Amino acid sequence: MTNLEKVFTVMQRRRIGASTQYALVPHGWAALQKAGGAGAAAPRSSSGWLTGIQMRAGILMAVLACTLTMLTGCRGASKNAQSSDEISPGQLFMFSPLTSPNPATGVAALRVDLGRSLYYDRHLSENASISCNSCHDLANYGVDPGNAVSMGHNKLPGGRNSPTVYNAGLQFVQFWDGRAATLAAQASGPMMNPVEMGMSGPDTVLAYLRSRPAYMRQFKEAYPALKDPVVMDNVTDAIAAFESGLLTPARWDKYLEGDVNALSDEEKKGLRVYLDAGCAACHAGKGLGGNSYQKLGVYRDWPDQQKDPGRFTLTREARDRMYFKVPLLRNVDRTGPWFHDGQVQTIQEAVRLMGEYQTGRKLSDADVNLIVSFLHSLTGDIPQQYIQAPSDTTSAPEAGDRHGRLHKIHHAMQSSAQEGE
Fold first, then answer.
1. 398 is an active site residue
2. C-alpha to C-alpha distance for 298 and 302, rounded to whole angstroms
3. I need a labelling partner for 232 at 20 to 30 A (CA). Which of 64, 258, 275, 311 fits?
4. What Rg, from alpha-carbon coordinates, does the chain have?
5. Which is it for strands 44-45 and 48-49: parallel, antiparallel or unpaired?
6. What is the pLDDT of residues 198-239, one digit of tens each?
7. Does the reported pTM lie above 0.85?
8. What angle do CA 305, 308, 312 make, to 5 degrees?
9. Catalytic residue among 196, 221, 243, 317, which?
């Protein structure tokens, strides 16, 4: 397969909620022919047919990508052992470096602090047993380590693997199926999900927060312009403000910025194989993923499609069957088990499967290990000071505490209702 075949992309328009997003979707020649082929009608998008201008733009971008890829000399370490392992950071046009965020100040800092408290608060679950951090453990790279799916407040398993919350703000949508367009939109879902945190509704969440003087003070300080700042929009906004700062720059970013010594020789060889295998067609950009939806099983049908058909469950449109949001690769060597169902136990197996099903290439053990070496360079340090949990939100409830907590919530709900009369 030529470089042009690997890099060729088709512009697809995908609708998320009320907004429309554009994503470059790699298909290769075979998928392009299925979509219409040369001289045939343009491929169909989620909301209609692409215009000729959009199609030509996709072709021009593909040609440009191919040309620049060839200029980098990305022919694969295993195929051209005599070539230099160095790839100029300036030629890696499909990536961009991630930098450490500037510390928030003023009201923005107060909202981050509030969001941190909410993130760790177990009392935002029905029986005060779990918090956001229970399934997205910030001390373990934002995942539920070792578990294919996480257990909710009633010990029932969730439907999909818990993705990392680190760098999640870099993604164009949230959740595996993209059902939330922003971090804030994502934040409220688990609280009211009956399997996850199980709160009966927004009123219960707000009643609990209003029953806590410390929260009342925090909300008033973080949202001083509002007469009643304790509303769900501010709850999710504060959580999103905190999560937006969960960024993990790595040695890879130093390499992109010009430090050619930031990667080891083995990692540079792995980068070359990564590019040659076509991984960057989906896993590019600042997050090395999170930029598009892709079909799981491009060259071969993915097994066990009936259990989870991807976005089809959300949209009920046949064209979305087995499409998922492409996950980020930052910290990927620390966020297993892998894939939407958490059924893959090693990063090596995850790389092998992606090569076989997504790029049509059976990677050798040597190439798999080289790619994994490169992936190590994407792992950054956990921001220990930033994620330090407030001491009053993480303790598990004591025996009999749930009854007293529910009594306070009920009293707060009654008071709120009387004020509104």
1. no
2. 8
3. 311
4. 23
5. antiparallel
6. 999 999 999 999 999 999 999 999 999 999 999 999 999 999
7. no
8. 95
9. 196
